[in-house]
Design goal:
By secondary structure, this protein is an alpha+beta fold. Helices cover 50% and strands 16% of the residues. The chain has one domain: Serine Threonine Protein Phosphatase 5, Tetratricopeptide repeat (Alpha Horseshoe), CATH 1.25.40. The strands form three sheets. The protein has a five-stranded mixed beta sheet with strand order 6-7-1-10-11. Helix 14 (320-362) runs antiparallel to helix 16.
Length: 463
């Protein structure tokens, strides 16, 4: 029966297809259907409230994950305020699960053993990079809504990143996967541009310096450092446009089989000895695990064309595909170790079922007693088959994230300018002297124009 349950990647296929086509209206309908099913509410109420009804409980199973997907859809449909509200609800539930997940691997293993199922039986606490990305999206959505809280959200990016990197997860068992994570520069870059816009040069310089420490090869970061260290500032009478290009569709997870590594077996042995209160021979067959699949493997950089002339090129500053793959690889020994422990417990249970059946039949009269050994072996084999055949990898993921976030900065004379990143991706923008403007482009399907958003103050009165 458990084997008949759809995996997350199968369940969300229609939504992911609509999003990947750049069909945001259909994606909105599909995510409403998923939310209605998950939270046990009507599709009609979701359509009226955009998922923001107080009756919708983000902590109910995976509801918060679908709220994050809904937030991306609302952003693409030109509703950044609703997107912010949805991202906040998703962020708050992510934070609650992150901080309540204090038992680390030991607690997760105990839960799985109790359930005798797989990682899908556990509460989804979100991939570590998703905890960071929700704050990135909150900042960007706020910038195109007016930017009142953008700096606070940008600060949260760095704070959450340090909490993750400083986590003690796995310390007692001798392997801390989060130590292998790289720091992303995006939060520090956002802090820098916001401080620079407020003429707080010292603070901006420090923020750009942190960003360069995390990612020293980025030209836009080097240019920011040089600009604040006596280089060419913005010319008098000019303003700046900050371009954020969310290109491609982010990664999804597929199931694959993985042979336990020596590290995974070692970790499983340590934890199994604690949980089972005695050493146990560990089953070492291949187990189902998630694998990161890049939905959009390559995102080209975009020329920023102003009034018909190319003036800049976007540069990748955050590669979601790479981060998702690196973090999953770092955590894979723990994922495999959990599966090994489950297989060991299931194998022991199957053996107990075999022996129990045999003993019961041997005490009975008649033909059954004569075949007690064979019937017991059959019962044990069927139990083991049922227990392992229903096991699947956990493929839950925030699938509407972009494959990459690319950035560009353009200084222009005050006035109205036509800014384009390609066919169908353009906006008339009013540049104000000494002020910053924001242009946000979402293009999950690289062959379809996508969505273009800009902050309210850059919208010309007569575009």
């Amino acid at each position: 029966m458990l084997g008949a349950c759809a995996t997350h990647v199968e369940r969300t296929q229609a939504f992911r297809d609509a999003w990947g086509r750049g069909d945001f209206s259909s994606a909105d309908q599909e995510i409403n259907a998923l939310l209605a099913d998950e939270a046990d509410v009507s599709v009609e109420s979701l359509s009226l409230t955009q998922g923001l009804s107080p009756d919708l409980d983000p902590s109910d199973d995976d509801t918060f994950l679908f709220l994050l997907e809904k937030g991306m859809v609302r952003l693409a449909l030109g509703d950044p305020q609703a997107a912010q509200d949805l991202f906040r609800r998703g962020r708050d539930e992510l934070d609650r699960r992150f901080h309540e997940d204090t038992d680390g691997f030991l607690g997760k293993s105990a839960s799985v053993i109790q359930a005798i199922h797989d990682d899908r039986a556990l509460d989804y606490v979100g991939a570590d990079y998703e905890h960071v990305l929700v704050r990135v999206l909150l900042t960007l959505a706020d910038l195109v809504s007016g930017g009142q809280d953008a700096y606070a959200y940008a600060l949260q990016i760095g704070v959450m990143q340090e909490q993750i990197l400083g986590s003690e997860f796995g310390e007692e068992q001798g392997y801390r996967p989060r130590e292998n994570y790289r720091r992303i520069a995006f939060g520090a870059y956002l802090e820098g541009i916001l401080k620079e816009a407020n003429l707080e040069s010292d603070e901006a310089r420090l923020a750009y310096g942190r960003a360069l420490n995390y990612d020293s090869d980025r030209k836009i970061l080097q240019a920011a450092r040089d600009r604040l260290n006596g280089g060419q500032p913005s010319q008098p009478g000019h303003g700046r446009i900050h371009v954020f290009y969310l290109g491609g569709t982010g990664p999804h997870l597929e199931e694959t089989q993985h042979e336990p590594s020596s590290l995974a077996i070692s970790l499983a042995g340590v934890v199994a000895a604690i949980l089972l209160e005695s050493p146990a021979p560990l089953v070492q067959t291949a187990v189902p695990v998630p694998r990161v699949e890049a939905t959009t493997p390559f995102v080209p950089e975009r020329s920023v064309v102003v009034n018909g002339a190319a003036v800049a090129t976007t540069e990748p500053l955050l590669d979601v595909n790479e981060i998702a793959r690196e973090q999953l690889d770092a955590n894979l020994p723990w994922i495999v170790a959990r599966a090994v422990i489950r297989r060991t417990v299931k194998s022991a249970a199957a053996l107990a079922a075999q022996h129990g059946t045999k003993r019961a039949l041997e005490r009975s009269n008649g033909t059954a007693g004569e075949y007690a050994g064979a019937i017991g072996a059959l019962v044990g084999a069927l139990f083991n088959l049922a227990a392992t055949a229903t096991e699947h990898a956990d493929t839950r993921i925030w699938s509407s994230l972009p494959a990459q976030i690319q950035v560009a900065r353009v200084s222009l004379p005050a006035g109205v300018h036509q800014v384009s990143l390609g066919p169908g991706i353009s906006a008339a923008m009013r540049v104000r002297s000494g002020a910053d403007s924001t242009l946000l482009v979402l293009q999950p399907n690289l062959s379809v124009p996508g969505a273009v958003l800009q902050d309210p103050r850059s919208v010309p009165s007569n575009p």
